[in-house]
Design a protein that fits this description.
The chain has helices spanning 18-35, 40-51, 53-64. With 67 residues, it is an all-alpha fold.
Length: 67
């Protein structure tokens, strides 16, 4: 039976690497988009795109597999 006083608290023994993967992907996408930006507005758009890069990845994968 779970301990009621610790119910709902995050257990530090169950860590995942998802945050690290997202962070590395964010930095990579940010560098890519900023590097190709020709104006400040395209740089800002690149920053916003870098925040949601997983959505672009899933969209392109679904498009590739024609689902």
């Amino acid at each position: 039976m779970p301990d009621k006083k610790n119910w709902g608290k995050w257990d530090k023994t169950h860590k995942t690497g998802g945050g690290v993967v997202y962070c590395l992907g964010f930095v990579g996408a940010l560098i890519y988009y900023i590097q190709h930006a020709t104006t400040i507005w395209l740089g800002l758009l690149g920053f916003l795109k870098a925040l949601v890069w997983p959505a672009f990845l899933v969209y392109k994968l679904l498009e590739f597999f024609k689902l």
